[in-house]
Write a structure and sequence with these properties.
heterodimer; A: 113 residues; mainly beta; seven-stranded mixed β-sheet; four-stranded antiparallel β-sheet; 11 strands; globular; B: 111 residues; six-stranded mixed β-sheet; 0% helix; 56% strand
């Protein structure tokens, strides 16, 4: 069981470039999430997918898009990267959206110059 | 709006010196309170879920308790390997799929 995997681990982008962060889980979980973590700000939810075929905005969705490709995979896209998007990004999954703990991936450290 | 406040922000202990971390919360209809451990450069790792006031859970040197307003993570005789950031999160009622996280307590245990 790999749990939650994320690629890439590190990425440097120039302002205006685009990229997609990939996430996959092998725990047959229904719900998946994308967070960003910044010093002093804690974990902030960007987007989530309660179940396959649905996606919803979280606390800080601006500048991001997501795709729930299938039950296993949930990708995060930055269409035109900005320095304010420099952060560590975590993908997580849970069995269902309510009352269940989340399992996190190892994170992607993104720097936008 | 659900709110979570963790205290202290940082805690330094000597090996073997027991202490507690606090998580105060405001939520409409608690569905679950979660504790996670996060090591530097890694994703949060699930520790405990508590569902109702009076509930307690233990794992090795850690014990989590819950009241209607707060949760405590008690660390008994900590070791240096317990050094990490501990995160608390709550999930409220109303069908929301969005948990609310606190900013965490950074724990350092000195040998």
């Amino acid at each position: 069981n790999a749990g939650v995997t994320q690629t890439p681990k590190f990425q440097v982008l120039k302002t205006g470039q685009s990229m997609t962060l990939q996430c996959a889980q092998d725990m047959n979980h229904n719900s998946m999430y994308w967070y960003r973590q910044d010093p002093g700000m804690g974990l902030r939810l960007i987007y989530y997918s309660a179940s396959e075929g649905t996606t919803d905005k979280g606390e800080v969705p601006n500048g991001y898009n997501v795709s729930r490709l299938n039950k296993r995979e949930f990708s995060l896209r930055l269409e035109s990267a900005a320095p304010s998007q420099t952060s560590v990004y975590f993908c997580a999954s849970s069995l269902a959206g309510t009352s269940h703990e989340q399992y996190f991936g190892p994170g992607t450290r993104l720097t936008v110059t | 709006e659900d709110q979570v406040t963790q205290s202290p922000e940082a805690l330094r202990l000597q090996e073997g010196e027991s202490s507690s971390l606090n998580c105060s919360y405001t939520v409409s209809g608690l569905r679950g309170l979660f504790w996670y451990r996060q090591d530097p450069g890694k994703g949060p790792e699930f520790l405990f879920t508590l569902y109702s006031a009076g509930e307690e859970k233990e794992k090795e040197r850690l014990k989590a308790t819950l009241t209607k307003k707060e949760s405590f993570l008690h660390i008994t005789a900590p070791k240096p390997e317990d050094s990490a950031t501990y995160l608390c999160a709550v999930q409220g009622g109303g069908g929301s799929y969005i948990p609310t996280f606190g900013r965490g307590t950074s724990l350092i245990v000195h040998p």
